[in-house]
Amino acid sequence: MTLLTKITDNNKNLIRIRHILSERWIGYPKAMKVLNNMEYLMLHPKTYRMPSMLLVAPTNNGKTILLHRFFDSYKPSITPDVSSAKIPIVYIQAPPTPNEKAFFINILAAFNAPFQKQNTTAQLQYQVMRILTNVETKILIIDEIHHLRHEVARIDSG
């Protein structure tokens, strides 16, 4: 048995294997339509009732890659000469169970913001809202939000 890390021949095979296993972006028409809709949300002027979007598709249809592609196109570059950071898009994973406190902690973790686990949900929410406002976030992407749906369905059928 040959370990992949021990492949010789200038590691050409290892490079090929990694390339084959890497994620791919295929800009098929529906994906491009979703990106255009997200771009519309990004450019929408601030109003009292901001538009939103829920992206639903079967498992392994590329939703996460699509969301990352959009997120990466607006990823800020923070350098020492920047006086205040602007982070237009924040990407988080929903907690595995519907827990409001865990939700706010995930957002704070996305910012690498310090927080106290013993803080109340209201205190964490206040901290999140303050940060989102200060960095002028326009879009909050919540991946794997179906966790909430499954929990609600479980409670309803319970």
Automatic annotation (TrEMBL):
Pfam families membership: TniB
InterPro entries per the UniProt record, alphabetical: P-loop_NTPase, TniB
Family annotation (SUPFAM superfamilies): P-loop containing nucleoside triphosphate hydrolases (SSF52540)
Name this protein carries in UniProt: TniB protein
